[in-house]
Amino acid sequence: MNDSYKHKGQRKKLVEGLRKKGITHEGTLEAMEKVPRHYFMESGFEQFAYKDQAFPISKGQTISQPYTVAYQTQLLDPHKHEKILEIGTGSGYQTAILLEMGAKVYSVERYRDLYLRAKSLLNEMGYQPYLFYGDGYKGQPIYAPYDKILVTAGASEIPDELIDQLKEGGLLVIPVGDSMGQQMMVIRKTSEGTLEKNSRGSFIFVPLIPGKDSNQQNDAS
Ligand code: SAH
Question: For atom 17 of ligand 1, which residue has the closest CA?
Answer without folding.
Answer: 88
